[in-house]
Amino acid sequence: MSDDVLSIIPSDPQWQPDCDAVDHVVALVEDLAPGVAGGVEVEIEVTWHDVVTAVDCGANLERIGCPLCQAAIDTEWWGDLLEAHCDDGFTTLAVEVPCCGGSTTLDVLDYDWPCGFARFEIAIWNPERPWFSEDELTALGDRLGHPVKQIRAHI
Questions:
Q1: How far is residue 39's CA from residue 16's CA, in Å, rounded to a whole number?
Q2: 18, 101 contact by CB (below 8 A)
Q3: CA separation (Å) from 60 to 16, 23, 55, 96, 151?
Q4: How would you classify the pairing of strands 63-65 and 4-10?
Q5: Model pLDDT for residues 8-40, shown as the tens digit of each residue
Q6: Do the beta carbons of residue 27 and residue 122 sit within 8 Å?
Q7: Between helices 19-32 and 134-144, what is the axis angle to 10°?
Q8: pLDDT tens, 47-61?
Q9: Residue 116 and residue 48: Cα distance in Å, rounded?
């Protein structure tokens, strides 16, 4: 069986909220992604990571572009990178891209579908909706106390 996961992460990969803010955000997420009667049960998982962790889009990833030379970056390179850091996370997002050898950071690569990095994540499993609207993301960020972005994974 496959799952869809809609994750909400802070726009700053290092930022983490306090517990009270998270309670307010989770209440809003429950209202915005209640699931459907007779559908797969929605599960909301809140995680604080000790180090920056990749939040990727799973099978939805179609392309990664280099912000320096605009070339496509091999998704196998990305998969190897995720596997190398799956247990310990990322102490730095600095990277030398394989296409042009330039120096950049992982969070500014051009991911088609969005991917991100975070020390905090709210994951909504099987949300029965595709994306949050810009207004909903703003409301979630306001409650959390920091701007957020969303990542949709198919695993």
A1: 32
A2: no
A3: 26, 29, 12, 24, 10
A4: unpaired
A5: 999 999 999 999 999 999 999 988 987 766 666
A6: no
A7: 160
A8: 999 999 999 999 999
A9: 15
